[in-house]
Amino acid sequence: MDRTTSAALALAVGAGLVLVGGTGTAQAADVNVAKNAGFENGLASWSCSAGSGAAVSSPVRTGAGALRATPAGLDNARCTQTVAVKPGSTYTLSAWVQGGYAYLGASGTGTTDVSTWTPDSTAWKQLTTTFTTGPATTSVQIYTHGWYGTAAYSVDDVSVFGPDGGGGTDPEPTVPATPAGLAAGTVTSSSVSLSWGAVSGATGYKVYRDGALATTVNGTSATVTGLAADTAYQFQVAATNAAGESVKSAAVAARTAKATDPGPGPAVPKHALTGYWQNFDNGAKVQKLRDVQAQYDIIAVSFADSTATPGQIVFNLDPALGYASVADFKADIAAKKAAGKSVIISVGGEKGNVTINSDASATAFANSAYALMQEYGFNGVDIDLEHGINSTYLTKALRQLSAKAGPSMVLTMAPQTIDMQNTGTEYFKTALAVKDILTVVNMQYYNSGSMLGCDGKVYSQGSVDFLTALACIQLQGGLDASQVGLGVPASTRGAGSGYVDPQIVKNALDCLARGTGCGSFKPAKTYPGIRGAMTWSTNWDATAGNAWSNAVGPHVHNLP
């Protein structure tokens, strides 16, 4: 090959071209011939049947938009686009899908039409297939659709990759314009909500607080959390995409609300009944806090939500509960406290998780938990983390929170049975490390199957022996009797397994406190200071006519 040909090859490759044969003829490199492939410009270039599809800002895989289409009746929510193709060429068709049944295909190829599909997928999944165009084919229809009677599906990042058929591809993005209309909305003692106008071509937005990046979002609104009470802040927003970041918007000022002093709160009685109150509707009776049975001394509001900041928690009141306003909910907390009840915020649960595994996340937890105590009037926190904990950093977090909240803070825990089998577990180590500020450990004596008791024997859940022999581990392991409670479901629907009749709970309490009512296992000593019992949940209790609290509550309160 002479130097002239080599130079031509180098120029062609550098320009994104390839040489065909030895004649030096250049051919354009493959491109994505689909337009508005990421739905950043709404449904431009797309058509959906019977108005079944819409461009949405959530859920999205990348950028600020995605397609969301909903099958209904005999309509399978088909969305199509006609793309320009080159005859006699091969194309790779792909798209990312999520949600209900999703199909991806191409028709009018001039050869063999193709399609592929996937059943329901909670995570984004890529569908891929290939097709070859006929000798006279210059356009092909690509499509997506769901299936009759199934859930809505989402599509993002469509690609029809192959030779340019004359229609080109989406232009490279340019740096977006500066967002306009930035305004502050709802403020609390620890957060400010913001909104602004959409910017064409933007795939995301950066929100700045006093010049420092506070959060990044895909939509045109954000809530900045973790703020100090009664403090003025300046906020700006910038639009971003692959080309870069816009100039920041004009600043808008907002001041957080004054903190609500949670006050010292009522003292937890010597023998107490704890109930978890559901901030969601899962089929149990929906309650407002004011409706919670008066037998409950500690009410654990379930649950706080985590944020993108490790360790940080927030609380979002579920609209399903029917509260007219957040202020109405806060008034219910105040009324319960005035009636001598402790209302605390629970962290975790089966589906919730908060990661506290560093000094920064420990501080974030303490600061945000205390902010919730100030804002809502919570008396303390409940630790119900069921996805693993780090004792070192959780202890640091609880110590920091206690230093802020003072000695009247209520601190409860609800570990699973496996978490308290011996003093070497992370939960047990945490309980012992914060023993001087710990109110009660209400271990969950359910959903566990058989476990070892303090005598080394195996006991099956649902029996007096299971409750007493496992409580004995905590009592012999270093916790005070006043820090041990028995956690059980309020009804057969409250847990997958482990429900016990209230009489068994009463017998177990008597066995521990008085030495009576025991099964085959009898503790070596009595523990008259045993704190009491806990149930999941006040809602399931109410669903069953408050049968659990009516039976167990008076018995707890009459312990020696």
From TrEMBL:
Q: Which domain of life is it from?
A: Bacteria
Q: Which Pfam families match?
A: CBM_4_9, fn3, Glyco_hydro_18
Q: Which residues form the GH18 domain?
A: 271-560
State the signal peptide span. 1-28
* Ranges for domain Fibronectin type-III: 178-259
Q: What is its EC number?
A: 3.2.1.14
SMART domains listed in its UniProt record: FN3, Glyco_18
Entry keyword set: Carbohydrate metabolism, Glycosidase, Hydrolase, Polysaccharide degradation, Signal
Q: Fetch the InterPro entries from UniProt.
A: CenC_carb-bd, Chitinase_II/V-like_cat, FN3_dom, FN3_sf, Galactose-bd-like_sf, GH, Glyco_hydro18_cat, Glyco_hydro_18_chit_AS
Q: Which top EC class is named for this enzyme in its record?
A: hydrolase
Q: Which family does it belong to?
A: Belongs to the glycosyl hydrolase 18 family. Chitinase class II subfamily.
Q: What protein name is recorded for this chain?
A: chitinase
Provenance organism = Streptomyces roseoviridis
Query: What lineage, starting at the top, does this entry show?
Result: Bacteria, Bacillati, Actinomycetota, Actinomycetes, Kitasatosporales
